[in-house]
Amino acid sequence: MQDLQAQSKGNPQVGIRLGLPLGATARYFFDDANAVEGIAGIYNQTFTVTGLYERHFDLSALTVPGFAWYVGGGAHLGSRRIDGNTRFIAGFDGIAGLDYTFTNIPLNLSLDWKPAVHFTTPSDLASFAVSVRYTLNR
């Protein structure tokens, strides 16, 4: 029986993130469990660029092939318009989610919670999103 992995080592994933923030996402797996993700997003007069490290845990043995959950963290930089003034923002991010990679087509779906703590403006702790990514070179 073939051993199916939830992710594709070395194959970048690019796509869209629908939620908070709304924008573009790109993810790269170093191996079957460790990945980095970049997000460029907009929301509520805010623009951020976020870098995350993610640790993925395969749930295929308990559910269906390609299903996983993940946790991680990182940091962000950006700008936010407050009371007519544009302010620089920076801070830390966490991420936790569920992930599904289709076995027959190069498509990945994820649902996550990504709280962001800003150093100089109010934090965004209720940031949920669905991401749809295309897996390159697969």
Indicate the overall shape: elongated
Write the element-wise H/E pattern from the N-terminal end onward. EEEEEEEEE
Number of strands: 9
* Average pLDDT score: 92
Q: How much helix, percentage-wise, in residues? A: under 10%
Tell me the major beta sheet.
8 strands, antiparallel, barrel
Instruction: Please indicate the percent range of residues in DSSP E strands (runs of 2 or more).
Output: over 45%
Distance between the termini: 21 Å
Order of neighbouring strands in the sheet with most strands: 1-2-3-4-5-6-7-9
Helix count equals: 0
- Ranges where pLDDT stays below 50 over 5 or more residues in a row are 1-6
Coarse structural class:
mainly beta
C-alpha-based Rg, rounded: 16 Å
Report a brief summary of the structure:
By secondary structure, the chain is mainly β. It has strands spanning 13-19, 22-29, 34-43, 46-58, 67-82, 85-101, 107-113, 116-118, 128-135. The model is unreliable at 1-6 (pLDDT under 50).
